[in-house]
Give the backbone structure.
Amino acid sequence: MKNIDSYTHVRGESLFVDDLITRQDTLQGLVFDSPKAHGKIISIDYSKAKNLKGVVKIFTYKDILGENQIGGIIPDEPLWAENEVHFCGQPIAFIVAESELIAKKARALISIEIEELPVITTAKEAKEKGSFINAPRSFNLGNTKASFEACDYVYEGNTFTNGQEHLYLETQGCYAVPLENGSIKITSSTQGPTQVQKTAAKVLGIPMHKIEVDVIRLGGGFGGKEDQATPWAVMAAVAVQHLNRPVKFMLNRHDDLRMTGKRHPYESTFKIGLTKDLKINAFEVEFLQNSGAAADLSPAIAERTLFHATNSYFIPNVHTTVLSCKTNLPPNTAFRGFGGPQGMFVIEAAIAKAANALKINKRLIQEANLLAENDEFSYGQIATQVEVKSSWTSAKEQFKLEQLEQKVEDFNKKNFRYKKGISVMPIAFGISFTNTPMNHARALVHIYQDGSVGVSTGAVEMGQGVNTKMLQVAAEILGIHQSKIKLETTNTTRVANTSPTAASATADLNGKAVEMACNLLIERLKKVASEMLSVAKKEIIFREDHVFINAKKSSLLWEEVIAQAMLQRIALSEKAHYATPIIHFDKTVEKGHPFAYHVYGTAITTITLDCLRGTYEVDAVKIVHDFGKSMNLGIDIGQVEGALAQGIGWMTMEEIAYNNEGRLESNALSTYKVPDIFSAGKTIKVIPLKTDGNTLAIKKSKAVGEPPLMYGIGAYFAIEHAVKAFNPDYTSKFHAPFTPEKVLMGLYENKSETLNH
């Protein structure tokens, strides 16, 4: 089945927040934000802005009737700053005007005096000054101290991975409308409708049932709209509460870039110990997470970094620690992979460090330490249904890895200006929210009198094709054509108390709920059909819009069964609740079984480097990926390709830059580079790994949103391989992204030989 949104997408008919027809009395909102990264607010003069014709009201924290607090995990973030500002772009006031143009003119008329305070921009500086979001977390397995003493080789090093801008095509936005009796409907571009509802109710000082949140679809999210869509919706809701008029607020691109959090930059130090047979015996790492000025989702992201710190490898002795460092940057937030990529990069860098020192192929160390059945992760979960070695072997054999390596070596011997690089990147990524109580979902299914069906879930469609998968589940179980089924918008009134669409778990959780609801309906309808045909209930199957008896098509139509069910007053609506079984985690001992299952895979990346310019091209990325039993291979391969491009971008060119004053310098697409079609790989080949799937995945079809992003890490090490082929004296920095500028410096670092060939 094709993505059900594809038809409206290509015709430009798909609706987003900005496409909604608004009421004639709709007002426009705009944020006045801090021009300084840290300081005390001495004075703000709103008088000129307030007097501008067309300005209706300027809202500040003084107008909040509830609590001026939007922090989720830790309540440490006000909706609007009160006496201090903690990052450039922090919202201070909300201008509501007759038009966006008037609001912009008003913003320019506001003057503010701030007494500047010291600014922290890096995690390392935050650690030195003792500036943290919360207490550090550590995972332990075995005894690293004693194990290092038994190692034949021990290496230490540092890594850095920069942040990443989400750059969703649809910027943050919302449309809030007053309803009767103080209720408000918010149409929001959010991955977390319940979070918007809950936070709006808290800030407005009203019960949650007074707030209805509706999500049509998102023009991309990637984690950036999990929690950070919330403040904009809440601001609009506050304005509606006071003015009783609709308020629309869409951030322009520059405001969105300046005021929103990114993927977390990480500064890390590692120590790795190996035996002579290349077994990794011990591994230690300290992750310094640049959290920004408030917690947001940083504690949860830090936790997932620990969960994925050893990637696809079994290491018997592990000690990992993460510190969430408080800085004066916008609060960093969820981004595809949710801390996992930052963790995986470090273990790959540590292996590369060892391989470089030993002057051997990195993959020999990788191959010697791949995870096996019943191995233990550092967090206590025992690995089962492990597909690490099978995906590695399959990739090695199908893509003829050794021949590829030989071709690269031969090319490099024959060419001076151009060098090729190759790398292998295995992945093992856990699927579930690591906060166990979040692993649940509900579905509501209505069968209408004419036999058509409406399905409501807590899943938010943001381009990943989740609505298509929900439709597939319903159509298969009900035995009717997809045209008879409509996926409703995601609405807190129809389906309440939802977890956000995140963690790659949305299709599993919501799909299982849809499956349960449809099965309950079918059981009732089988009884009706059996009576109509005078056959046993167990002989009844619904398929192809008909009733089948013992796999033989009858003349009885789906619509006729529904009509009879109505006459018999049979319930044709059903709700279901699904909670993932077996998962648990005890944070007091940092042990448990937090993941329903893992997704595995292996990517082989080859690149060509221009040693004169420092530029490079990704020649090919060849992947064997564990889809389980994919229920929609077209959508799933699309997710792999998109995630891969995003991962390559993070590793090679997407460079977030703040100056020492905490001001964003990569604040436009002229200064922030993202991959285009030519950056993503001339050839991308994805082969599904043959497996039995996993019963905790919907239809045994494994999650696919986040795991493939980590394949992009392979691009970094392929580039490094090419640089070292040109300059054997190059010292690996493990500083990502590996931009052409960094490559060029590395090519000629300590190099006496010149380009005289």
Summary: The radius of gyration is 27 Å. Residues 506-533 form the longest helix (28 residues). The mean pLDDT is 97.
